[in-house]
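DM between two lab members

TW: hey, do you still have the Helix-turn-helix transcriptional regulator entry open?
JB: yeah, one sec
JB: this one, 96 aa:
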Amino acid sequence: MQKRTVQRGRPAGSTTFDAELAQAFGAAVRALRTERGIAQETLANLAGVERSHMGKVERGEHQPTLSLIIKIAGALECSSAVLMRRTEELLGVVKS
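TW: and the structure you got?
JB:
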């Protein structure tokens, strides 16, 4: 049996960033934030992140970690499930 060599990193051309998903999540965050009348800077402060980072999340330029999703949900005073549901609705995965 031959020993396989281990290659570091991802295979060429693969990515962990899903732009469509990131944009849908950002739109869900922005919609909830505006519904609640919260400024982006205020939301960022409540979530414990930089305002510029929150802007990237809302524009879909950054795919947040689970930790950040939970912090954003807490700052919006909703569950992470609400954020995920809104995201799924925007993606057309579930019907509203």
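TW: got it. Helices lie at 19-35, 40-47, 51-59, 66-75, 80-91. The chain has one domain: 19-91.
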